[in-house]
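[step 3/7] inverse_fold.run input=structure_tokens len=421
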């Protein structure tokens, strides 16, 4: 049982204990963690930390009291919209992260379907690769989930999705790219499917929103996915991922202000006065918003292009290195910064495939952290600038670990990506 001490403690003592608590956390600053935290470099740290101090206590619940936060939100949303090829009609809000952005998109789609199409039993159509947050949104907001399979290349089976839409469909989802394997769905086809029943089309670019625009500027082919695609209604893009802002800040963008109004809760029948909230939260910290503004202004387009260039160098080197190690392979045709590494099938051989979870345990013993996924069993990596300078060391350890775990089987088969107690 926990109880708060009667007497307060000195600042140094409190901070010292917090520092000790971090001893077993992942070593992201060493570049040995493939995901969770994204490192834009010393100058990005500096500008974010100074912005955080300025806005440590500010509250974005009421932007009349803090008009600077209203301005910050408008500018960050506007800059993000311009990166995603939106016009002056595109509108949105900042949220606490990708999950909240997705929740807002699904809520807005449900409300629009109810108001404009009289849908009383709303449905969401998505692929099994779509982020779990869509299922959370469906659970919270009462939508029936219609889940399509993925194809052999792990992209959404758009033919199956087309068979699932109907008069109750409120929203159809595509990913650019999807998280598990880093491949991009056919957004043009998915948007057309949504338009065929006048449903919203949401593009989950939480992972790609601050990568794909710069990949394109670097001259690599990127299939159409943003507001240039007719029928795309909303896009989620996480600034605290490869936008390199601290946690937690994301953007939910709507093609029109009319679409945006469906995510905003308005209530005037309260003794406390008029209340309006565009997010899942009421009180919102101004700190992440200010940090996002500062980081985006500090980097500019050229800074993001350079960080993306280095990220692609890291990811390409990792893919090549994995392919050179007997027994493992990259799943799907990932071309950007997400990599799923699985066992190479041992067809016609008596040798057992590499147990990927045993491999993950062996890598963790050497300080390398991956998320675990299934099916099939695989290790997931979100590669970023954070991993610059360590990829060759990683591949040496990876080859050694593959050799050391042959014939081993991990008892722990869990793939937890969660907060549970």
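[step 3/7] decode complete -> sequence:
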């Amino acid at each position: 049982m926990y109880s708060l001490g009667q007497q307060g403690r000195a600042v140094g003592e409190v901070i010292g204990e917090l520092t000790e608590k971090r001893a077993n956390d992942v070593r992201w600053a060493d570049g040995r963690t493939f995901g969770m935290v994204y490192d834009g470099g010393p100058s990005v740290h500096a500008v974010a930390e100074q912005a955080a101090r300025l806005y440590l206590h500010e509250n974005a619940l009421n932007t009349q009291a803090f008009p600077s936060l209203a301005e910050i939100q408008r500018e960050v949303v506007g800059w993000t919209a311009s990166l995603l090829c939106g016009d002056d009609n595109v509108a949105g809000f900042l949220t606490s992260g990708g999950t909240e952005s997705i929740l807002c998109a699904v809520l807005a789609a449900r409300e629009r379907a109810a108001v404009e199409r009289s849908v009383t039993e709303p449905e969401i159509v998505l692929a099994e690769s779509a982020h779990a947050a869509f299922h959370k949104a469906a659970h919270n907001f009462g939508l029936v989930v219609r889940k399509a399979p993925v194809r052999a290349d792990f992209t959404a089976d758009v033919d199956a999705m087309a068979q699932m839409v109907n008069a109750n469909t409120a929203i159809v989802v595509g990913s650019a790219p999807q998280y598990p394997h880093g491949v991009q769905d056919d957004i043009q086809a998915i948007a057309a499917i949504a338009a065929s029943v006048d449903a919203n089309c949401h593009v989950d670019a939480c992972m790609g929103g601050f990568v794909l625009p710069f990949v394109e500027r670097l001259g690599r082919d990127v299939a159409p996915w943003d507001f240039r695609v007719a029928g795309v209604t909303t896009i989620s893009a996480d600034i605290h991922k490869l936008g390199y802002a601290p946690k937690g800040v994301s953007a939910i963008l709507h093609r029109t202000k009319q679409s945006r109004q469906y995510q905003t809760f308005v209530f005037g029948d309260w003794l406390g006065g008029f209340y309006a909230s565009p997010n899942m939260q009421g009180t919102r910290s101004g700190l992440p918003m200010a940090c996002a503004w500062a980081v985006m202004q500090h980097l500019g387009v050229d800074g993001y292009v350079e960080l993306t260039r280095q990220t692609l160098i890291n990811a390409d080197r990792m893919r090549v290195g994995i392919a050179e190690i007997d027994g493992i392979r990259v799943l799907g045709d990932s071309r950007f910064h997400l990599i799923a590494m699985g066992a190479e099938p041992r067809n016609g051989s008596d040798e057992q495939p590499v147990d990927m979870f045993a491999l993950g345990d062996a890598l963790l013993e050497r300080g390398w952290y991956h998320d675990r996924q299934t099916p099939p069993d695989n290790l997931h990596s979100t590669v970023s600038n954070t991993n610059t300078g360590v990829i060759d060391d990683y591949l040496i350890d990876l080859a050694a670990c593959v050799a050391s775990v042959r014939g081993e089987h991990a008892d722990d088969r869990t793939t937890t990506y969660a907060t549970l107690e």
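[step 4/7] annotate
The chain has two domains: 46-299, 300-405.
The first helix runs from residue 11 to 21.
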